[in-house]
Structure formats: C-alpha cells, structure tokens
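Please, structure for the following, as tokens.
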Amino acid sequence: MATFLRITIGLQTLAVFLAPVTAGLLLTTPNGHSLHSASAYTIFVVAVVHVVAAVLAWRPGGGPPRPIVSATVFLGLVLAQVALGIAHVTVVHVPLGVLLFGFSLLQLSRRSACLPPPERSRRPGRSASRAAA
C-alpha cells in the first residue's frame, strides 16, 4: 500500500504541475477553458484517491496516520481552489495553486510518510534491530 500511496502522490504532483499549463491555454486558445476544467477534475479525483490510499496505507498497511491528515488538508485546499476558480477570484486562485504545488512536492519528498513505522522491541531500552539479532 505504501507504493500505491507514493504513486498517487506522484500523480497528484504531476496533475498540479500541469494545471498552470492548461491555465495558459485558457488564455490563448478557444478550447482552453475545457482543458483547464479537465485538469481541475483530474486534480480533484487524484486528491480523493490520495485520501483513500492514505487510509489504506494506515489501517491495513500498518503505516503512520499522518499522511491521512496531509491528504485531507490537500483535498480541502483543492475544493477551495475549485470554488475560487469557478467564482473567478484569480487574486487568491493563482497563489493557492502555487501553494498546492509546493504542498504536493513536500508530500512527495517525505520518505517517512509512505513507510510503515519501525518495529518496536518487546524489551524496554533495546532497539528493534538489537532485539532481532
């Protein structure tokens, strides 16, 4: 499940990276609006899949619960981004898009977010690696 979570975060980062490209097409081509709308739907779907992947990596996968909080916050920001885009509030829409990209890159760079927690030793004061040896 940790691999699925990692792939989902990578797809999320790619989708958020491509959104400004479609925003540029929005300004220059007649079909730009539909392309930017499609990129928004893609980001939303990938953000929902990210939340599901984070829950699956935590509960059955034995990973940490922290990625669930990050995924949920990201989904909330995406919902705000979509609402601001529909309302044409570009003064907030554009900086929030930059924040989403940075946040997604931060999630992708965290190695520990996708790894299960280390095994604990049964004996206090001893690390898991020494107890296994």
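The first helix runs from residue 2 to 28. Helices lie at 2-28, 32-58, 66-86, 90-109, 128-132.
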